[in-house]
Amino acid sequence: MTDLVIRALDESDAQLFDALPDPLGVGRALAHVVHRPEWKRVALRDGRVVARAAWWGRPGDSEPFSLNWFDVAEGEEEAGAELLRTAPYRVEYQLILPRNWREDPEAHAAGQARLRAAEAAGMRLLVERYQYRWTPECGLPARPGRLVFRPEPDDDVFFRLLRRIHSATLDAHALLDIEEGGLDRAAQAELDYFRACDSPREWWRLAHTADGEPVGLHVPARIHAGPCVGFIGVLPEQRGHGYAYDLLAECTHMLAEQGARHILAATDQGNFPMAAQFARAGYPIVDERVHLVPGPADGR
């Protein structure tokens, strides 16, 4: 087998990225995403593209935020692994997959090939998630009317509530933040995300019972892909009453009132309570995501 050539692309040869087929429909799922040519890399053998990867970042980012497009030709998993090993970026990989991909032989084979290549490059599985997309045709979820929602201008109030919410969380990304830096890091990561969204700070909402007891918070947001459910969180002592649905319904109404023609959302597949509330609120699953994170820098 001939030697592998791995290189970054630029404006002059960006078309090389399109040389591989797209069996998982990643290009369709990322139709709204702009990848910078310099954050695309390919592996070539005898001048033929056998693996490709594209990293994504927000406008103004100096480094990519995530890897969200990675393909390998049949029999070239090691080439794909080498492409990732030699890349200068150590960020999360979001493998985009069709809904129920394990039941489709072609999608299952393609997904497993990419997972094997990423794991051979030192990445490890973090979590599998459902991706939702609400549209007006789904119908607005009914508002139960049990909670009172209000804005809160003090970020410290949100920070303290986020610490309490994440003290008993099922969210894998929050658990990773807690493992690496404690509850403060997990709460701060959420606040940083809220602030990075292209939506007004005034949209953030606290939720209370009619008696004034705090219940949780929701954050309607707008990201590069459009309106989204930025966050839904219920305090541990208030769980078991289905309040996550109330928060989700209110969040949906707020975004619809702002003119949203679609609303994106996601949750971990293992977060059964939240997945049930998305189903109850009429949010259909449009695809699945497998999230992998880089292993230790020293390879151990």
UniProtKB/TrEMBL annotation:
| Lineage of producing organism | Bacteria, Bacillati, Actinomycetota, Actinomycetes, Kitasatosporales
Identify the domain of life.
Bacteria
Q: Which Pfam families match?
A: Acetyltransf_1
InterPro entries, alphabetized: Acyl_CoA_acyltransferase, GNAT_dom
SUPFAM superfamilies this protein is in? Acyl-CoA N-acyltransferases (Nat) (SSF55729)
Q: Which GO terms describe its molecular function?
A: acyltransferase activity, transferring groups other than amino-acyl groups
Domain N-acetyltransferase stretches? 163-300
**Protein name as catalogued:** N-acetyltransferase
Task: Tell me where the signal peptide lies.
Answer: none
Q: Which organism is it from?
A: Streptomyces inusitatus
